[in-house]
Every structure is written in C-alpha cells, then in structure tokens.
Amino acid sequence: GGASKGSGPGNVGGLPEGFAMVGDIFSAARAGGGGGGSQRSPEQEEARQKVLQSIREFRMRPRNVKAHLDRYVVEQDAAKKVLAVALCDHYNWARSCIQDPPTREMEYSKPNMLILGPTGSGKTYLIRTMAKMLGVPFVKADATKFSETGIVGEDAEDVVRNLVAAAGGDAELAQYGMIYIDEVDKIAGGDSRATSSGAWGGKQVQSNFLKIMEDTEVSLKNPMQASLSSMFGGGGQEQSTLSTKFVLFIFSGAFNSLNDLIKARVGTQTMGFVLGEEQPGGSTPASG
Predict the structure, then answer these.
(1) How far apart are CA 5 and CA 71, in angstroms?
(2) How far apart are CA 72 and CA 62, in angstroms?
(3) Higher pLDDT, 51 or 171
(4) Cβ atoms within 10 Å, residue 264
(5) Confidence class of residue 28 from pLDDT cuts 50, 70 and 90?
(6) Which helix (H) or strand (E) holds 23?
C-alpha cells in the first residue's frame, strides 16, 4: 500500500534535544550561499557549525529515527525500521571516526541501501525526511540521466559534485550527505549498449556507481573544468577532491517485472501423475 504523507510538527517528539531544528538550520545556511570560510557571515558559520555538531554528537537510536518518521509517513513500518537501523549505524560510525581518527582505517562496509516499491509508495519522501532531520545535504537524481562517460548525459561522479552544490559549496558538510538515485530498475536490465559518443549503457553506469559508493576520492571539478583551471591557473588552495567514505547512497526503483520473475520461479508445477484432477493436457488419468 501507499504511504500517506503528512506535515509533521516542528517540535519532533522522541528525538534527542537539539535535533528538531537541524534541518531548518542547514537550510538557512545553504540559502546564505557561500563555499569558502572567508565568504561566510558569522551567522552562516554558526549555522554550519551546528550542522557539523549534529554529526559529531550523533547519539540517536533506531527507535528515535522511526518515531520521527512515524510523524510524517503512515504505515511502511518494515521499511522505516530498516532505514532507521542503517541511518544510525552509518552516522554512529561517522561520529566514531571523527572522535577517533584511527577508526577510519578499520574495515567497514557502509549500509548503502536499495529500496523497492511502486511509484507513489513514499520512497523519496522517507529518505528526504531523514536527511532533513539531520540537516545533512541531500541530492536526488534519476539513474537514466547518467551515461558511461558523461559526454552524453551526466557522469556518475557529477552527482557527488551536485551534493557539494547542495551544501552551498561546503565540501566538509557535503561529505556527510545523502545521495538518492531513483529509477535504477531502468539500468538493471543488463543492457550493455555503448556508442563512440558515450551514450547510455546500463552495465557501465552500474559499474561507475559501484566505484563511488565506497571510499573514493571524487574531483570537485569535472574534466572540462579541471582542464580550464590547469590552463589558466585557477583553483588556488581550495579543496580539490571529496571523499565518499561518509556519503550514504540510497538507490530505489519500481522493478515492476520482478513480480513476474518471482511467479515464474516459485509457481506451482506438477510432476508425474495428477490423481483426481485434470492433467495439463486436458486428459484424465487412465484407470486400470
């Protein structure tokens, strides 16, 4: 069934103190614009520090996250529980890495997620609500607009650059953001088409996303921008790459044909004699 969406109250019950208004604080900071620290006003810098503090002091538990989602989304309890556990696992680990830098070197697999559900079931709304709760940058994109090389369409790394843009150009904030890719079922058909112009190819796009999902350094400038900066000496001392180590990736799709595949795999099939019932060919078992 679909999820009914409501306009939740500003004061969120069940959350630790200080989390209710983080989303609004971040929105205000982003609206103020500005990327480098020298460009921020004191108010913008204060808002930015409050968002970073929400990550450094993250102590939420899955039941807190689910209680928050319950105020905005009706039903979908199973999905909300899974999302709450993944969110808490990821940001508790990010907090541990900030407090104890050697923790970054430990082996850890991010809880990147794949959400399946029909259109209108509330997939995007759930993820957007979680991102707003924390105040972290959030970017949504359709998988169908990406291509193997980015010459036609966008490259997979462009979505990471869009995350920096959503953070007002602040790479430090962006590294704790969420990236939501919808319509992945459209590139999951195993289509490997590719042309000399770099046109859409399902397998290649999947491979590109796999590269950036874990700990990867992504250039903040696309190849064209990087070439121009090199030619004209631009860039200065600005941060040139962004690590995706703390970026949470969520993929979703309707996967409408999945039901047919499951039915074909687990459908009732008969073997041998069928007693008391008509056989598949329309004849009845012979007696004697």
Answers:
(1) 9
(2) 16
(3) 171
(4) 8
(5) very low
(6) helix 22-31
